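Hi, here's the filled form for the chain we discussed.

Project: internal
Contact: R.S.
Residues: 98
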Amino acid sequence: MLWTIVKPVRRPESRYHLFRKRIPNDVLPKLQGRTLTIKVGTSTTQCRISEKTREIKVSLRTVEPGEVRKRQADVSAQLERQWRAIRNGPQITTGSGP
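And the returned structure, exactly as it came back:
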């Protein structure tokens, strides 16, 4: 699997770093009209995906460099899991009942 490195961006109007990542072309049509819930630190944020949305932008809500790296990795992993689930579609699970 190819991992892409996503660097946090510093916004001039805020002291917090911003997470930015492009939505893959194969996932984008399936996401339009949906809202993604993303955990950042101890809180959650929601991103509404419209027809014009091409990337996810989320405030990392911290200025501490170590915490920025950790949150950056956490948000990126969450999005990769969500995109993998969208690509794979619903999964049928079978239980091994009593």
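Let me know if anything looks off before we file it.
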